[in-house]
């Protein structure tokens, strides 16, 4: 934080009398907070004026006592300015300043650190502190991080019409009763695979699917939230619409040497050395990667593998009310 000496300044350019301080040394102040009451040492003692802070920070030192007469330009107190190292929804978590109201305020918080709270940003310095603590925890637990992709890696999803009686297919809507239906099949052995590696890896989901889609699929993979918890990075949190690699520095500010990745696509990770490239999983014929990033659509195996739904007859199903 930079330091700033606040001096007497007002339009009337006259000495003032400090009546009462409303802050103490060490107090955190936001823009607009009352710092002290004062008057112009005149006959009318009932007129108490307010001095409000025009900057956010911490009161380092009060320079004049109550009852003192100070002239225009004299120092009142020292303020340690807040550089807004932690921001949530454009509000500083340190001083409480609403940064949307002040275009000229410089903030150092720019690194999103938590999957479940994409609006929370911290400074690079704070990010490295958090990242170091995470690395130490992983080493202590003797674990690595495993980032797993969803579409065509662990699952295959289509939005074509799918008969309701196909075994092991999840049917769901994301945006209410009148929204489109999605149909998802898990890759065979997925649950067993995740259970087996859980003791050795901290599992994260990293997908180009939307946030609602990613969390819905996570429920199918991990209904008790034991495996992934809230470690889900979706398209809505990604920095780059065509690259997942761009997120690694934010998620792991101290480096990705403890990180492994499994994905059916190498291009979105810029062919990273810590990527395990898996064969794409196709269950529904005529459907590729429905969440492929713009310009990177993939349909090369759509006609070669998977179940052709046009040849399946829908069985009559009795529904109990």
In short:
The chain is an alpha+beta fold.
Descriptors:
321 residues, alpha+beta, OB fold (Dihydrolipoamide Acetyltransferase, E2P), Rossmann fold, 3 domains, 5-stranded parallel β-sheet, 4-stranded antiparallel β-sheet, 20 strands, elongated, disordered C terminus, RNA polymerase II CTD heptapeptide repeat phosphatase activity, FCP1_dom, hydrolase, EC 3.1.3.16, FCP1_euk
Strand order of the largest sheet: 18-17-13-19-20
Listing every helix as H and every strand as E from the N terminus to the C terminus, the arrangement reads EEEEEEEEEEEEHEEEEHEHEHEE
CATH architectural arrangement of the largest domain = 3-Layer(aba) Sandwich
Q: Tell me what portion of residues adopts beta-strand conformation.
A: 25-35%
**Unreliable stretches:** 315-321
The tally of domains stands at 3
Fraction of residues in helix: 10-25%
Sheet with most strands? 5 strands, parallel
CATH classification, class level of the largest domain: Alpha Beta
Given the helix and strand composition, which structural class is it?
Answer: alpha+beta
Look at the structure and give the mean pLDDT.
83
What is the tally of beta strands?
A: 20
Q: Tally the helices: what do you get?
A: 4
| Gap from first CA to last CA | 65 Å
The H-level CATH homologous superfamily of the largest domain, spelled out, is HAD superfamily/HAD-like
Cα-atom Rg, whole angstroms?
29 Å
Overall 3D shape: elongated
CATH overall fold name of the largest domain: Rossmann fold
